[in-house]
Amino acid sequence: MKFKENHKTALAKVLSDLVQCDGIVNQGEINLLQRIYEAFGITATSRKKANTLSLSEAVSILKTLGNREKTAILRLFQILSLSDDALDPNESLLTTALLLSIDIELPETQGIKAYFVSIPNLNFDTRNAVLYVESKYNKPVNDSILRDYDTICKLLDDADREFFYLPMVLRDLGSKRAMFLQALSYIEPTLSNEQLAQIDSRLDLMDSAFLSKEIFLNYLNTNGLNLDKPAFFFRIGDKNTNLQQDFLILEIENEPLTTLQHFLRLKDNIVSLMPEDLTPNDKRFFQIVTLEDKDTEKDALNYTGFHKILIDTLLKYTGSHEVSRLYVTKRGDLFLTDRNNAEVKMPALAKALYLLFLLHEEGIPLNYLNDYKPELYRIYRQISTYGDDKLLNQAVDNLTDFVGNTMNVALSRIKKAFTDLLGPDATPYLIQGKRAGRKAIPLERQLVVFENRGMFG
């Protein structure tokens, strides 16, 4: 079996996700992971690099392996899933998703096409959801879903999943329209009566293609992925702590119900697959790797999501001295990726000023800030919730022309936002420099990740 360094890093990523997907990591799983890492030469450096990969990126790397190596990975997935003596539904789903996505050639996978995508967090909770997605309205598939809707819902419910099919949601809303709009006025109190009326008038215009475009396809298309066939989107993972959400795209072949049945049948039997590509030496290798931990105490610590919350909270306020990556969303929100994705919150005008300096690594003399007014205005307009251009222009004018105390207040709020989270470790993130010279943010730019830099530049 031949694994290059990038394969080892990708393998570390998927194994780590697999062992954590049920929310509990016990001592036996930790010991097994350690033996796997040693056997495959996966170093601490590789494991650290793995944290920078999304699941879809890791899968893309593993797809370049030969079938023998992929078969070995499948065996690892099976061993790790059963190492705690129970197969959690999330483990079997993730194992099946990984199996299909790295293109292992098995008779059981014939006729199923599936692959991973990682997209920014959505504005609604899709936990345990299965969504129907299409790039344009497909009448035969929609007719088939409507005909078998109850059976599909029951099938997914038995797999601890909930089917999200927009036409049915809209049908339910149509019968409870007044209640929906009343509830919306309480849930979203900032909506005006005019906006509520617009929502009411547009409900009938929405279909699955509209939902798909607005939520998924606009993002996927800009990243070079075109969805040619109607598909089911399976949310992977039960936790909503990352900036990215991972989905398995299961393309619909012929009948939607048949596609789901084929996929779920594979999921239910994933640990019993016995691929033939492994040599006798490979099989002996896995027997050695999976030796039972006779010395592991029965009361050994189970590492759960609650432990992670405690640790991440401690890191958030005391922190290691390693500099965290800074993630910038397309809305300009700032997150410290390696500090439990803590959000750096500040007013929009201060944030616009910070983003301007973040985009100009060379720095900007404050006395020449007026030269950057058009760019600053574009950024502020992009991230501000104000819809009044006159107010936006006035705020930028006050800042760049040093009207009143606007500049000092903005710089003070930027400093406070970072120091409240990081204390003395905030220094690399702050705008700094000599009094009459250029001001700059010293943070190394390879640690700055923009979801879409072009929206600000």
Question: Can you describe what's shown?
Answer:
This protein is α+β, with helices and mostly antiparallel strands and 457 residues long. It is 49% helix and 11% strand. The protein contains 19 helices and 13 strands. Strands 2-6-5-3-4 form a 5-stranded mixed sheet, with helices on both faces. Strands 10-9-8-13 form a 4-stranded mixed sheet, covered by helices on one side. The chain is flat, with a radius of gyration of 25 Å. It starts with a helix and ends in a 7-residue tail after the last strand. The relative contact order is 0.10.
Short description:
With 457 residues, the protein is of the alpha+beta class. Helix content is 49%, strand content 11%. It is flat.
Features:
five-stranded mixed beta sheet; 19 helices; 11% strand
Which stretches of 5+ consecutive residues score pLDDT under 50?
238-242, 309-321
The overall average pLDDT, rounded, is: 79
Largest sheet: 5 strands, mixed
Note the overall shape. Answer: flat
Strands, total number: 13
In whole angstroms, the N-to-C terminal distance is: 46 Å
Radius of gyration: 25 Å
Sheet-strand content, in percent, reads 5-15%
Structural class: alpha+beta
Kindly report the spatial arrangement of strands forming the biggest sheet.
2-6-5-3-4
Helix segment tally: 19
Helix content: 40-55%
